[in-house]
Amino acid sequence: MRQLTSLDAQFLHAESATTAAHVAGVAVLDPACAPTGAVTRDALIGLLRERLHLAPALTLRLADVPFGLDHPYWTEDPSFDVADHVYETTLPMPGDEAQLAEAVARIHGRRLDRSRPLWEMHLIQGLTGGRAALYAKVHHCAVDGISGAETLAALLDLTPEPRTVEPPAGHLPTVAPGLARMLAGAAVRSLTHPLRVLRSLGRSVGDLDAIPVAAGLPGARLVAAATRTLTGSPRSLPALPSLSAPRTPFNGPISAQRLFSYGSLPLADVRRVAKASGSSVNDVVMALCAAALRSWLREHDALPDRPLIAAVPVAVRTASAREVVGNQISAMITPIPTHVACPLERLRAAGEAMRTAKRRFARSPATWPNELSSMMPAAVTAMTTSALFRLASIAPPPVNLIISNVPGPQFPLYLCGARVLSYYPMSVLTDVSGGVNITCFSYNGSLDFGIVSCPERVEDAWRLMGHLQEAMDELVELAGPRPAPRGAGAQAAPTDPSSIGSARRSSLFQ
Asked: What confidence score (pLDDT) does residue 239 get?
């Protein structure tokens, strides 16, 4: 019996006419080495059926508690058929990047059907050069960054020849409780809710200086420090900078429409800039995003004189919880130096901000997303979340946007025999988190960026991608001449296929 957590339910109920709460990605494929020279819908369906047991979230649907008195449960869908979730389309000529982005944006803006398992895959044919693309989305209430990556990894191979996957040794179906048990559980949780609120309040107050909006309240830092002392948590933590988000064009009510832009940067260049400046790869990524956002805001005469505030999701999923459906994530809230004009000074400031946030998180992992989600009764959460999100869009923004950097494998992978050339991640837009989301994924020597925006907030998403490239060129030039090539630089593929989806547990994920 599996029930949505308060955080899972928050992702579910945040959906509205203008918000679709799923995570997704676009894999660009070269089918030249596939057995038939093409990736077909039938082949994809066959692969899914063979490996479905490796991705438990794909077979479950929601079972609602009557009148929304408690969070929904997961249950096996007796009528489930993989073929009902796999679609195929062909782009019109010439099948270029803009057409792919437009097609993907349309699909990404549509919400998933809650009467069946919450995922879809769209095989997109007709890209230039004989390529194809696979767009896949799964609802955020079912997966977080790590489990989403591992769901995709279940379909991938290390060679064009598919690996052998052992059939399941025995399957215990996930079944929702009956009506009487649902209502009894709802009654018990309703009666004990005040006690849980008190516990959550005590734990979240210790993070008061790290919570958007709350951190700016008078005395927030003193209250947080005093609470940590009383609860035995570390009192002496790295002081966080101001987390007051300025108003920007990114923030405000969003529409149901989505735009998508994407592109890749050489990971070797990012690493060279990091080495030359004594920074980390993630510092460079944050500096690149800061530079691109700064350039876009300057073009629109909307650059604030203080840093933007970004939410950076952090995976807290452990190896023992790999098959748990749902979310195990937290978030770091950090300034990004869009107000700094000098590229090197901007890189230094981005690194300093991220190191402060990481030191704070390492010593006192932020649990406030889970705690805040659990403070409202389930019935209230279901009825009010989307309305509260909409109302928050006219208040001062808690953050300006979400930025995620997802480390991936540095060796080629294959899907249905086709080589995966690149993978562009996509995430969620909400009235609270802003009308633009930047996610990047490092894969086989490239840093692949996916930018999702609402056209009411950012009507020229391709400009942001162009500014990322300009920022990379600028830092590369400042880092000095490129070193002479020393042979193959890509990491060797592992011999154990199960390691495809195993990410570093300290990594940042969306």
From this structure: 67
Single-letter code of the amino acid located at 21? A
Q: What does 97-122 look like in DSSP terms, one character per residue? A: HHHHHHHHHHHHTSPP-TTS-SEEEE
Amino acid at 353: A
Query: In sequence order, what DSSP letters do the residues of 342-386 get, joined into one string?
Result: SHHHHHHHHHHHHHHHHHHHHHS---HHHHHHTSS-HHHHHHHHH
CA 449/CA 442 separation, integer angstroms? 9
CA angle, 94 then 95 then 97, to 5° = 120
What are the structural domains of the chain?
2-164 (3.30.559.10)
- Picking from 347, 53, 333, the residue whose alpha carbon sits closest to that of residue 213 is 333
How confident is residue 232, by pLDDT bands cut at 50, 70 and 90?
Answer: low
Joined together, the tokens standing for residue 182 give 């649902």
Taking the CA atoms of residue 249, residue 254, residue 259 and residue 261 in that order, the dihedral angle to the nearest 10 degrees is: 50
The answer, as to whether pTM is greater than 0.85, is: yes
Point out the least confidently predicted range of 167-181, 284-298, 316-330, 433-447: 316-330
Residue 235 has pLDDT above 60, yes or no: no
CA distances from 254 to 127, 246, 389, 438, 451 (A): 30, 17, 11, 16, 15
Distance of CA 386 to the CA centre of its chain: 20
Question: In this predicted model, which residue has the larger pLDDT, 174 or 229?
Answer: 174
Q: Which of 108, 140, 339, 467 is catalytic?
A: 140
* Catalytic residue check, 22: no
**What is the phi-psi region of residue 326: left when phi exceeds 0, alpha when psi lies from -120 to 50, beta otherwise?**
left
Q: Tell me, what DSSP letter sits at residue 407?
A: E
Structure tokens at 393: 């869009």
Q: Taking 50 as the threshold, does the pLDDT of residue 504 lie above it?
A: no
- Please tell me the distance from the alpha carbon of residue 264 to that of residue 446, in angstroms, as a whole number: 6
